[in-house]
Amino acid sequence: MDYEAVIGLEVHAQLLTKSKIFCGCSTEFGAPPNTHVCPVCLGMPGVLPVLNRQVAEFAIRAGLALHCRIREKSLFARKNYFYPDLPKGYQISMFEAPLCEHGWLEIPADGKSKRVSIIRIHLEEDAGKLVHAGDFDSAVESFVDLNRAGVPLMEIVSGPDLRSPEEAAEYMRTLRNILVYLEVCDGNMEEGSLRCDANVSIRPRGEEKFGTRAELKNMNSFRHVEKALAFEIERQKRVLESGGKVVQETRLWNAEAGKTLGMRGKEESHDYRYFPDPDLVPLVVDREWVERVRKNLPELPEQKRARFVSEYGLPEYDAGVLTAEKALADYFEATVKAGVEPKPASNWIMAELLRELKDDEKDVRDCPVRPEQLAALFRLMKDGTISGKIAKVVFSDMYKTGRDPAAIVEEKGLKQVTDTAAIEQAIDEVIAKNPTQLEQYRSGKTKVFGFFVGQVMKATQGKANPELVNELLKKKLG
User: What is the tens place of the pLDDT at every residue in 366-384?
Assistant: First the structure.
């Protein structure tokens, strides 16, 4: 039977506030265990939570960017569930009255644009972190770090509109990009500041009714989202085709084994016994606040992509690559501002810079070559100090050392040779060593000309001015 996948994603984004959602403890990542805690996030008797206003503002910003309706009055609730890493024993979240509702997000799919609905965006506190000693299936000890308990989370729930693992990964990439551009989340999936749970089911193609869904957890990269969903879809197909029934459950993605494993039965909302938190007043958002946030929204990826095409004259492809990451777009614009023409800057960044970053597994924010240094390298090419080929050698050294291009050129003696006599001497030597190719050229096989150019450049260690080499070679060979 031909089955169709039905996928909805629940994305948890850690908000870029300096303090937690209901107390003043730091949200800094990587601190020693259990050092960013206080009586409030430790759930001590008699303490009261107080909402961090910036948390609400960041959520409003995201809601507006995702075309949501912002509720004038939203409520925090207590979600009762056994949390071994939340001392209160319950989580403060939003349930019946989320802050943002009824939005959408456009993603590329099959060469077209696809609209994915956003059902809701709500706020909640994160739990702490359990560290298990031992292997995946048989941990012998568990340790708890409560630094993350109370860190502000924004949960973005999509509609069941995605139909393939590839669409789900594209949705995650697009959403992450928007959140990073908004400066409400750093998008670091490895550190857990952007996490994804997926609800996935399958049904015979053409059928309206949804199948029984499984919830997948522990996916901390776009690649893992694709792989986990692909495995789960095939697993459910095998269950149905063997005459079995898919069980509604929560499953964990084991990246090392490349498969999903059952954890527990999947709860329904009533199992959490939600009720309004008596310690928190309703969150009231007036229109003035919403409009002030809307007015201050930054330029988003789609807008920046269109501007790169219109303002800099870049092809759509270049604009798409350069705006895929906010930091990369900023790097490009800083390079242009430093004096490099847009298209050459785009070519160099996409080819040379991104290759070095990929090989080094680095983010552009950690790039050792500053935009001003890249502009200085272009000036050396423009004034004839070095050739384009030598520039690539210099850039590689710049990337490894962070040094200025002029210093590298001077130290390594890489200045371009423009002395006509020296180039002519090299040409004479090359011609004398290659009589066969000379005869071929003079008999009409002009493609051999490229061979001579290469040999001259090799003889001059790539330092000869290419234009002069071509000009003098034509005279000599003729």
Answer: 999 999 999 999 999 888 8
- 174 and 112 within one domain: yes
Asked if 134 and 255 sit in the same domain, the reply is yes
β 90-94/76-80 pair status: antiparallel
Q: Is there a single domain that holds both residue 370 and residue 249?
A: no
- In this prediction, residue 401 carries a pLDDT of 93
Q: Are residues 89 and 176 in the same domain?
A: yes
* Mean pLDDT across 345-359: 95
Q: Could you tell me the CATH number of the domain that includes residue 433?
A: 1.10.10.410
Nearest in space to 290 (alpha carbons), one of 445, 61, 135, 114 = 61
> Which of 291, 322, 349 marks a domain boundary?
291
Same domain, 9 and 111: yes
For residue 408, give its domain range. 298-412
HEC-encoded secondary structure of 323-386: CCCHHHHHHHHHHHHCCCCHHHHHHHHHHHHHHHHHHHCCCHHHCCCCHHHHHHHHHHHHCCCC
State pLDDT tens for residues 128-149. 988 877 665 665 788 899 999 9
Kindly list the strands in the beta sheet with 90-94, ordered across the sheet, starting from the edge strand earlier in the chain.
90-94, 76-80, 275-276
Per residue in 16-73, pLDDT (tens digit) is 999 999 999 999 988 999 999 999 999 999 999 999 999 999 999 999 999 999 999 9
Q: At a CB cut-off of 8 Å and minimum separation 6, what does 373 contact?
A: 398, 404, 405
